[in-house]
Amino acid sequence: MMKTEENKSWKTVSEIDLVYRTKVKNSERPHITSSRYAYNLIKDCWDPGKIEFLEQFKVLLLNQSNKVLGIYEASSGGITGTVVDIRLLFAAALKAGAVGLIITHNHPSGSLLPSNPDRYITAKIAQAGELLDIKLLDHLIITEESYYSFADEGAL
Length: 156
Description:
With 156 residues, the chain is an alpha+beta fold. Helices cover 29% and strands 22% of the residues.
């Protein structure tokens, strides 16, 4: 009797399905060639009413050729900060089959200088990416007018 109950327990386990669906042909995907191009692309995807109002954190998910698989909004917070759960960030990256990331967030204050928390999350994401063979290519701090690139400044 007990053995029959044990055999039925597998039916109560949740099924996990890893699927990435896209309708965009590889030839039509934006190809990231510089931090300036990445900035222009991500800024075009930002809600202009929020870029100077509240902090958001978004991720460009890239394939082996640095073509954009998608943009994942990892977090939306308050005026002075936002919290990023890197487990969800990497869940999105793994699901899309990404091998590279460019993380981005805005500073509503207009300052382009990275804060200590900005440096910390960058290091933490880079470290997690190393374990998963997903390379952190850059971290952009953006404003309405310009950007700061960790890669360009040698801070990555």
